[in-house]
Write a structure and sequence with these properties.
Elements: H1 8-28, H2 33-51, H3 56-73, H4 77-100, H5 124-147, H6 153-171, H7 177-198, H8 203-229
Length: 230
C-alpha cells in the first residue's frame, strides 16, 4: 500500500481542523495561536499514524509539548503529566521502534514507494487481559486524581491511563491501540466540552482537535485492521 499520497479523507481532516480553527477565531474574536498550532499539529500527527508513516512523530513532539501546557492551565493535571512526562519521550522511543519494524524515513530508502510500519495484533486472551488491566488502572488513578482535587478525576484518569497504554501499543505497532484511542477521544471531547462551559482558556479549540482525532481514529482502526492482517 503506497502512502506517498494522502487520501481524500486525510485531506478532509487536515483542511477541516484548519478551517474550524479559523472559523472559531473569526466568530469569537480571539486568535488562539497556541491552541490552534497544537490542534493542527495533532491532527497531522494522527493522520500520519493512521497511514503507518513514521513522520507522525515529528508533528507529535510539537503537539504533546503544547498540549501539556494547555492541560496544566486547565487544571487537568493527569493529562498535563501524561503529555510532559510520557508522550514527549515516547515520540523518540516510537520513532526507533517503528524503524525496527520497517517504517522508511526517506523515499530513497523506501525504494520510491511509501513503506509503512509492519502492524500486528493481540490474541483474544491478551485482549481480555488488556481490558481488565485498563479498567483497574482507570479506577485506581481516578481516586488518586480525586484526592488531589482534579475537577474531572475519572474522565481525566481514563484519558490518562488509556492513552499511556495506547501510546505504548502504537510504538510497538499493535492495531489494538485504535480501540483505546477511540474511547479516549470520545471521553476527551466530553471533558473539554465541560471545560468550555467553565470558560477555560484554549478549551474550544481543544474540542475541535479531539473531534478530528475521533474521526481519524475510526479511520485508523479500519486501516490498521487491514495492515495487521497483511
Amino acid at each position: 500500500m503506497n502512502n506517498k499520497v494522502l487520501s481524500l479523507y486525510d485531506w478532509f481532516l487536515i483542511a477541516g481542523v484548519i478551517a474550524s480553527n479559523i472559523i472559531y477565531s473569526a466568530l469569537s474574536g480571539n486568535v488562539d495561536i497556541v491552541g490552534s498550532v497544537a490542534g493542527i499539529a495533532g491532527v497531522l500527527c494522527v493522520v500520519l499514524v493512521a497511514k503507518g508513516s513514521i513522520w507522525n512523530y515529528l508533528f507529535g513532539i510539537v503537539n504533546v509539548s503544547m498540549y501539556a501546557y494547555i492541560s496544566y492551565k486547565a487544571s487537568l493535571y493527569g493529562d498535563a503529566a501524561l503529555n510532559a512526562l510520557y508522550y514527549v519521550p515516547m515520540q523518540f522511543i516510537g520513532w526507533l521502534q517503528w524503524r525496527k519494524r520497517g517504517a522508511a524515513v526517506s523515499q530513497a530508502e523506501a525504494g520510491g514507494a511509501g513503506v509503512q510500519v509492519k502492524a500486528r495484533r493481540f490474541t483474544r486472551h491478551q485482549r481480555a487481559i488488556l481490558a481488565l488491566g485498563c479498567t483497574a488502572g482507570v479506577i485506581a488513578v481516578g481516586y488518586v486524581l480525586k484526592h488531589f482535587g482534579d475537577p474531572q478525576p475519572f474522565k481525566d484518569s481514563a484519558t490518562t491511563v488509556l492513552s499511556i497504554v495506547a501510546q505504548a501499543l502504537m510504538a510497538l505497532a499493535f492495531m489494538e491501540q485504535w480501540a483505546l484511542w477511540i474511547i479516549t477521544n470520545v471521553i476527551s471531547v466530553v471533558m473539554w466540552c465541560i471545560c468550555v462551559a467553565r470558560g477555560e482558556a484554549h478549551a474550544a479549540v481543544m474540542v475541535i482537535m479531539w473531534v478530528f482525532y475521533l474521526l481519524n481514529s475510526l479511520n485508523g482502526f479500519r486501516v490498521w485492521l487491514k495492515l495487521s492482517r497483511e
